[in-house]
Every structure is written in C-alpha cells, then in structure tokens.
Amino acid sequence: MSEFAAAPSRWERFKQSDFLYYFLRDKVAMFSFAICMIFLVLSVAAPLIAPTDPYDMSSIDIMDAELPPSWMDGGDERFLLGTDEQGRDILSTMLYGSRLSLTIGFLAVALQLFLGIIIGLSSGYFGGRIDSYLMRFADVQLSFSTMMVAIIVSAIFKASFGSEFYSEYAVLMLVVIIGVAEWPQYARTIRASVLAEKKKEYVEAARVMGFKAPRIMFRHILPNCLSPILVISTVQVANAIMSEAALSFLGLGLPVDQPSLGALISIGFNYIFSGSWWITAFPGVLLVTLVLVINLLGDWLRDVFNPKIYKG
C-alpha cells in the first residue's frame, strides 16, 4: 500500500488559501499593505534612520527654529522638511511621532479587543440578565461620542493627578482612555456572532462532553468569530490614531516634548498664519495617508470576508 501523503504545512495552506488569492489580485489592497508596512518599518527604525533625536535637547538649537524645507529660500540642507518652533527637525519628529501614534493605536485596539471579547462572549453565551445588563451598559456608553468620553476622562486625570503625572504616563493614559471608550463596537459584534454560533451542533457536543463554559467560549466559539473581529480591528486602529491626534490637537494628549502626529499638527497650527506652513502640512499629510491606507485595508478585508461579494 502507498503511504499517506504528508499533511500540507501552514505555509502551504496559506499559499493555497482564498485570502492570498484575492489579495494578489487586488492592486489597492497590495498598495495599501505596502504603504502600511513602510510606515511601520520607518516608525520602528526611527532611532536608527532619523537625522536627529527630537528628545535630545542638547542636539536642538533654538536658532534653527522655523526654518523652511531645504529646497526653499532660507532652508538648510540639514533639515529636509524644515524645523518647528523649537528648532527640531520635522522629518525626525514625524518618524518618532508616527511611532508613538502607531503604538497608541495598536495598544488601544488591543485593550478594546480584550474588553470586547470578554464582555461580548459573556453576553452572547450566557444570555438572560447578564446579556441585558452588559448590553444596556454598552448602549449607554455608545450614546456618548468617543471624543466626549476621551475628553472627560483625560480632563479628570489631569485634574486629579496633575499635569506632571499625566505627562509622565501620557501614552498609558491615552491607551486606557481610547481603549475604554471604544470597546462596545467589539462587544456588540462578538455577541451577534456568539448568538449564531452557540446554537450549532459542535457547541452542543462540547456541552455534552462536559466542557466548562470558559473552554467552550474561548476554544470553540471564539475562533469562529475572528473574521468580523479582524475587519473591525483595522478600522479601529485608524480611529484610535485619529482620536489620539484629536486629543493632542486639543491639548489633552501627549505633551509637547513627546511629539506625536497630532501634537505636531497642533503645534504647527499656531504658526501656520505666520508662514510656517510646513510644521502642520507634512505631519498632516502623513496622518491622512496613514489613516487612509488602513481604512482601505479594512474595506478590502470586509469585502473578502463577505461571501456575497467575492464568493458569490
């Protein structure tokens, strides 16, 4: 008898998957993914490739303040995109700022995902009063806009612990603020998926075998709810980056000595009418481009996981 063929590896299964098939035939998805990877690599490698360190005050000269880009009259070849009001190189602050913005975006979404999965699974699986209580709590939070919740919470933190404490833990504070403000999106989506999955035969079989509720929820039901979670996560990363930028613009985000894209835009806005448009323009273009490509990826993922569009 011939030997059984070896089971294909994960890489082989991935190469033969519908996901990769559709990805390689969608130019917008490939372009968006490439831009996202470029942003990610540049932000991670910021300490290695940035011309200067915007956190090192000894390398900053106030006499270099508000220099235009190097190709304009009065520009300096040391500063390709010009400098801000403190004399910091705009290119360097953009690289470091994008790293901070992406870090806050990913960590905030991780917190949203954690809260949303726990609450959504519990609500959908147990039902009854637990479901009613958790969903009414989510409805109440959804009645407030994300920015309103973020502004209120950040203002309370500043008033309670002082500006110095807030500045020291600003990144952590923003992650918590944005994460807590957006978890209902995940919870409601996961709950809807759980309500459909828990009636299927594999869940009943797991119950008959005596598996406890946590094992059924996390090892059997949750893996079948990952498609909508992945789509939401891409959109939520973009939303979290925009929320951080908006809070920094309003003065409730990162301090001026920790330049994020939002903080740079806010700083430059005060000087845009004096002619120093580059302080706001370049970080603004970077932020818009980053959010756009992430949203394009989210739209593509939504279409791929919708069988009526790609597999009809």
UniProtKB/TrEMBL annotation:
<dbReference type="GO" id="GO:0055085">
    <property type="term" value="P:transmembrane transport"/>
</dbReference>
<dbReference type="GO" id="GO:0005886">
    <property type="term" value="C:plasma membrane"/>
</dbReference>
<protein>
    <submittedName>
        <fullName>ABC transporter permease</fullName>
    </submittedName>
</protein>
<keyword id="KW-1133">Transmembrane helix</keyword>
<dbReference type="InterPro" id="IPR050366">
    <property type="entry name" value="BP-dependent_transpt_permease"/>
</dbReference>
<dbReference type="InterPro" id="IPR000515">
    <property type="entry name" value="MetI-like"/>
</dbReference>
<keyword id="KW-0813">Transport</keyword>
<dbReference type="Pfam" id="PF00528">
    <property type="entry name" value="BPD_transp_1"/>
</dbReference>
<feature type="transmembrane region" description="Helical">
    <location>
        <begin position="28"/>
        <end position="50"/>
    </location>
</feature>
<feature type="transmembrane region" description="Helical">
    <location>
        <begin position="165"/>
        <end position="183"/>
    </location>
</feature>
<feature type="transmembrane region" description="Helical">
    <location>
        <begin position="104"/>
        <end position="128"/>
    </location>
</feature>
<comment type="similarity">
    <text>Belongs to the binding-protein-dependent transport system permease family.</text>
</comment>
<feature type="transmembrane region" description="Helical">
    <location>
        <begin position="221"/>
        <end position="242"/>
    </location>
</feature>
<keyword id="KW-0472">Membrane</keyword>
<feature type="domain" description="ABC transmembrane type-1">
    <location>
        <begin position="98"/>
        <end position="298"/>
    </location>
</feature>
<dbReference type="Pfam" id="PF12911">
    <property type="entry name" value="OppC_N"/>
</dbReference>
<feature type="transmembrane region" description="Helical">
    <location>
        <begin position="277"/>
        <end position="298"/>
    </location>
</feature>
<feature type="transmembrane region" description="Helical">
    <location>
        <begin position="140"/>
        <end position="159"/>
    </location>
</feature>
<keyword id="KW-1003">Cell membrane</keyword>
<dbReference type="InterPro" id="IPR025966">
    <property type="entry name" value="OppC_N"/>
</dbReference>
<dbReference type="InterPro" id="IPR035906">
    <property type="entry name" value="MetI-like_sf"/>
</dbReference>
<keyword id="KW-0812">Transmembrane</keyword>
